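Hi F.,

I've been meaning to write this up properly since the lab meeting, where we talked about keeping a consistent format for the predictions we share between groups. The idea is simple: the sequence comes first, exactly as it goes in, then the structure tokens exactly as they come out, then a line or two of notes. No screenshots and no reformatting. I'm using this chain as the first example so we have something concrete to point to.
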Amino acid sequence: MLDLPLLFAFLGAAALLTVTPGVDTAMVLRAAALDGRRAALMAAAGIALGCLGWGAAVSLGLGALLQASELAYTLVRLAGAGYLIWLGGRMLLRPRADFAATAGEGAALQAGEAFRRGLLTNLLNPKVGVFYVTFLPQFVPAGASVAGYSFVLACLHVLLTLAWFGVLIAATLPLGRLLRRPALIRALDRLTGGVLLAFGGKLAASAP
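Output, unedited:
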């Protein structure tokens, strides 16, 4: 059963949430500015896969478990906060001074690292699961399967996210050569590290 007004309402709300700056945006922008198109696309793919993982978990009832179990939520929250703080601290204290090779094995390693960061940042953030549990059911039409339709909405949210990341990557790549100066590379690494630290601290301090 398809309710077009409800679907359009979801798309509007999801679009606003998608363009709101956050840790995912910071990771994609940094990858696009410093590591090139391939790494930025892989970071976006990792983020999208992490969101899809939570969407599938919610449809299977695991998101509701996080919402109901303080212990489960706390364990995932602390793991995610620890990862963000570790990653942000490393960027802040040990920023790069040069731009690695853009071809061959170096580029492949950069792309793989970008994908891993994007994936883990979302998989280790229980707020994504709780957000899907509380947000998506509001847009499920009467008579539709809550689990199945919620997963479809999660997929639409991921598509919106990928489209937005595509715009950001396209806008950032022309500035890549300018932003790859040693001083700017260090500054961007430290800025991104500070953002990750802030989100990691916020996640660690958030209430269940």
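Notes:
Residues 43 and 117 are 7 Å apart (CA to CA).
Residues 100-105 have pLDDT under 50 and may be disordered.

If this format works for you, I'll send the rest the same way.

G.
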